[in-house]
Each structure stands twice: as structure tokens, then as C-alpha cells.
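This follows on from our talk about sequence and fold. I would like you to pick a protein and set down its sequence and fold. Go ahead and set the record down below:
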Amino acid sequence: MFRLMIVLISSAFLFACSSTSGEKTAYSNEDMVCEYVAKTGSNLKRRTCMRRELSEELRKESEHDLREAWSRGQTQAHTK
């Protein structure tokens, strides 16, 4: 009985996770960029995929923020 309940609950979770929302995207693999990224403080990497345009926009924004931090001197290590 216990095994049957575990199987039923597991299947319910699997079916719930596999359901799709009403939103559909039609991106080809050429429009997507995937990379493995570890969150800060973790050694586990997760696959992250996004559209090529979004990836390029995030890269440019990160470069701008880094240049701004360098110009303010916020990235220097203060050692004694």
C-alpha cells in the first residue's frame, strides 16, 4: 500500500511538472545560447539557456557596470 501511494504521488508530481502553460515559443536552436553556470557560493553548475539577444544584452550591461565600478575604484582590494 505504501509503495502504491509513493508511485501515485510521484506520478502526480511528474504530470504536474510536464504540463505546459499557454505560452509557446518558437525559437530554433540557433537563437538559443546555453551555458553551465555555478551560483555564487556553490560548486554545482546548472544549465542556463536564453535567447541570443538577451545574452548579448546582459553581457553589454555587465561590461558597463564593471567599467563604472572600476572608474569609481570600487573593485580594488583593500589590503594592509
User: Anything to note?
Assistant: The longest strand covers residues 32-38. The chain has a mean pLDDT of 76. Residues 3 and 9 are 10 Å apart (CA to CA). Residues 52-72 form the longest helix (21 residues).
